[in-house]
Amino acid sequence: MCHQQMKTLIFVLWVLGYIAFLLSVRRMWTGKYVRSPLARLVFMNMLSENEAPEIQEWYQCSPERLGESVKSLFIQCHLDSGTSAFLKRSIEKSGWMFTQLYHSFVSAILSPLVSRTSINGFLGRGSMFVFSSEQFQRLLQIHPEWRADRLLDLGAGDGGVTKVMAAHFSEVYVTEISLPMKWNLQRRNYKVLGIDEWHQTGFKYDVISCLNLLDRCDNPLLLLRNIQWSLVPDTGRLILAVVLPFQPYVEVGGKWQRPKEHLRMKGKLWEDQVTELSTEVFWRLGFEVEAVTRLPYLCEGDMYKDYYVLDDAVFVLKVSEEKL
Predict the structure, then answer these.
(1) Is 191 within 8 Å of 169 (Cβ atoms)?
(2) What integer pLDDT is reported at residue 37 of this predicted model?
(3) Where are the transmembrane segments (predicted)?
(4) 126 — phi, psi (to 5°)?
(5) Which sequence spans correspond to the domains of the chain?
(6) CB distance 221 to 261 below 8 Å
């Protein structure tokens, strides 16, 4: 009995020590990030009224640095109401101290066993944001009432970004590796397909979205070829987002390793890599760029940071006439 009590006491002390450590780390970050209620209020007002300098940089592009064939296809985007709403929710959720402590504790326990994506799916945290409804419509050059038959969202995560697009389609199909994320997608009534069967269904898709997946899959060239074959002829479109600078890694059992197929990217600037993707990778595979823009790839924050942001290039691609 004493031995069991000792084990229980050690566990309780470990939990208390872990919480104390997290709280001390949280205080260390207070000055650098938007932690206090007053600072949060000021920042959220900035989202509503004027773009902060940091946010303005998310959308900046120097068109003169783009290749001649890409320059005229660039669409300038700005912070809009949909993006502001996501940022506000992230800031609010980051301030839920006990929820964030619980999330951090569970993550520490599960991280040696399962992937970060599955942990986020289990906890219902870490939602992503790529574009708003208005930005999606502008990129595809469609109006709010536009409707089509089928959407396929590859690597859909928890379905948060899928929801932005889903209103325009009669049927919504998704793929996802993480089991907890699949459960989330099924609860949203999306049709979950296996990662090896979506291009073998016998029907084609009006729009396929491949958002921030190209740098996280083993065979990106094969993926693009399968997408090309799976689009409705003539009218089918691929909306593809990729984080730049391009740094491909694949998560396997909680560890990161290089993919089997490696896309070599020239240039260091965002504009250089957009041109390289457009004129080399996509063109050689038989895709034509219809539009490209620069958007922030946002993720809900945690107890250390209100939100996380990466630099996205978002393309709209069609199959070139030579491939049809």
Answers:
(1) no
(2) 47
(3) 6-25
(4) 70, 30
(5) 70-319
(6) yes
**40: amino acid identity, one letter:** R
- High-pLDDT (> 70) share of the chain, %: 70
Q: Tell me whether strands 207-211 and 148-154 are parallel, antiparallel or unpaired.
A: parallel
Give the pLDDT band of residue 71 (cuts 50, 70, 90).
very high
What pLDDT sits at residue 42? 44
**Paired tokens of 170:** 């009669």
For residue 237, give Cα distances in angstroms to 76, 288, 318: 20, 10, 5
Give the other-Cβ count within 10 Å of 130's Cβ. Answer: 22
Kind of pairing between the strands at 169-175 and 250-252? unpaired
Please report, for residues 59, 87, 233, 290, 297, the alpha-carbon distance to residue 75 in angstroms, rounded to integers and kept in the order given.
Answer: 10, 22, 25, 10, 17
34 three-class SS? coil
Check if the beta carbon of residue 298 is closer than 8 Å to that of residue 76.
Answer: no
**How far is residue 287 from each of residues 217, 230, 241, 290, measured CA to CA in Å?**
19, 13, 15, 9
Maximum Cα interatomic distance, the chain, rounded to a whole number of Å: 78
Distance between CA atoms of 139 and 128, rounded to whole angstroms? 19
The CATH number of the domain covering residues in 70-319: 3.40.50.150
Bridge partner residues of 250 (DSSP): 257
DSSP SS3 for 172: strand
Please list the helix, strand and coil fractions of the chain in percent, rounded to the nearest 5, in that order.
45, 20, 35
Q: Which residues are 209's β-sheet partners?
A: 153, 239
Q: Where are the alpha helices (DSSP H) in the chain?
A: 2-29, 37-49, 53-57, 68-71, 81-94, 97-110, 116-123, 133-140, 160-166, 179-187, 220-230, 270-276, 283-285
For the chain, helix (H) and strand (E) counts, in that order, are 13, 10
Closest CA to 198 of 239, 234, 226, 158: 226
